[in-house]
Amino acid sequence: MKNDILLRALARQPTEYTPVWLMRQAGRYLPEYNATRAKAGSFLKLAKTPALATEVALQPLARFPLDAAILFSDILTVPDAMGLGLYFAEGEGPRFERPLRDEAAIGRLAAPDPTAELRYVLDAVRETRSALGGRVPLIGFSGSPYTLACYMIEGSGSGDWRAVKEMLYARPDLLHRILEVNARAVTDYLNAQIEAGAQVVMLFDTWGGNLTAAQYEEFSLSYMRKVMSQVTQVPRIVFTKGGGGWLESTAASGCDAVGLDWTVDPGNARRRIGARVALQGNLDPAVLTAPPARVREEVRRVLDGFGTAPGHVFNLGHGISPHARVDAVEALVDEVRAYSRQLKAPPG
Which terminus of the chain, N or C, has less C-beta within 10 A? Predict the structure, then answer.
């Protein structure tokens, strides 16, 4: 590994600067990504063609000195492999043809074999890892069992997740059945990614923050804990958007790092979690629509908040927006590298 600084930071070892990568770093803010997507014809064709997925995964590394690559895929490939019929409506985001609303369909739900139904993802992992040639680590990922369930039940994104909440309160047994299957599926999927070459894995619990504290433990964290207990070969990052109230329990889930969204104070998170796990985050993604000078100010503020203790990976507090300015991303990466070196330099 030519650049292993991410792996060292996740192990809470001292590093000469703070490693940086960005959630959705390969995406619509890059003109080259849009060109490749146009060539593919659709987002799903892009994600399901390993050569093209590899191409876009490497594009941000050609522009910016990032410290990791992340697999180009989508969290909803898992429920798609379960037969729910994923499609993307223009301007409306992902949708499922067959959302889970009745007991019989939920009873038939089964975890897919990732080496069969999701082979195209594993091929993309292998091709991307090979193309990197040891330049930086490759991150694999999955949605959390609860976040996947949200889309599987609702059938699309939602402002209030009404169908999910109705099931949670009226038939929690059905929701638990879905979550049990999802936990098995996510475990198998992440382990297959690791076998194919992923060197770090991340669980995106994007919608865990729509739960109460008690519900978060019961319906989200307990299932992520099951996944963590069976995915042990590489560093593991858990990110719950809106999960700032539960940092201590998330840190105790068995993960190696906790991702923080932009609403969390980094210094407070450090005090609450201590040195138990590494921390990842947490610049507001909206900053990347601002001029580069403003971006640099905010980067320094975030780095000052985390301090110089080992175990920080710089990232956004959520995925990069398609409206982000390329020069703003360039300023972010440059400022992280330069300013964190100053902070970590020995006195004198």
Answer: C
Instruction: Give the Cα separation of 127 and 40 in Å (integer).
Output: 17
To the query of whether residue 28 is one of the catalytic residues in this protein, the response is yes
Report the distance separating Cα 305 and Cα 76, nearest Å: 34
- The answer to whether residue 301 is catalytic is no
The residue segments making up the domain with residue 325 are 5-344
Sign of CA dihedral 82, 239, 190, 25: positive
**Catalytic: which of 37, 126, 184, 337?**
37
Closest CA relative to residue 211, chosen from 223, 221, 203: 221
Residue 133: the pLDDT is 97
Q: Residue 24 catalytic?
A: yes
Residue 238 and residue 246: Cα distance in Å, rounded? 12
Half-sphere exposure of 327 (CA within 13 A, CB side): 5
Flag whether pLDDT at 60 surpasses 70.
yes
Alpha-carbon span 156 to 143, nearest angstrom = 15
Whichever domain contains 291, its CATH number is: 3.20.20.210
Distant-in-sequence, close-in-space partners of 71: CB < 8 Å, separation ≥ 6: 53, 57, 121, 124, 125, 128, 138, 139, 140, 141, 193, 198
- Marked catalytic residue, from 29, 151, 189, 216: 151
140-168 pLDDT, tens per residue? 999 999 999 999 999 999 889 999 999 99
300 catalytic residue (yes or no): no
Which residue out of 67, 74, 80, 205 is catalytically annotated?
74
Between CA 87 and CA 64 the distance in angstroms is 32
User: 95 forms bridges with which residues in the sheet?
Assistant: 87, 156
pLDDT band at residue 45 using 50, 70 and 90 as cut-offs: very high
Write down the pLDDT at residue 166: 97
74 assigned to active site:
yes
Record the tokens describing residue 117, joined without a space: 């139904």
Look at the chain and report how many structural domains it folds into: 1
Say if CB 72 and CB 51 are below 8 A apart: no
Q: Is the pTM of this model over 0.85?
A: yes
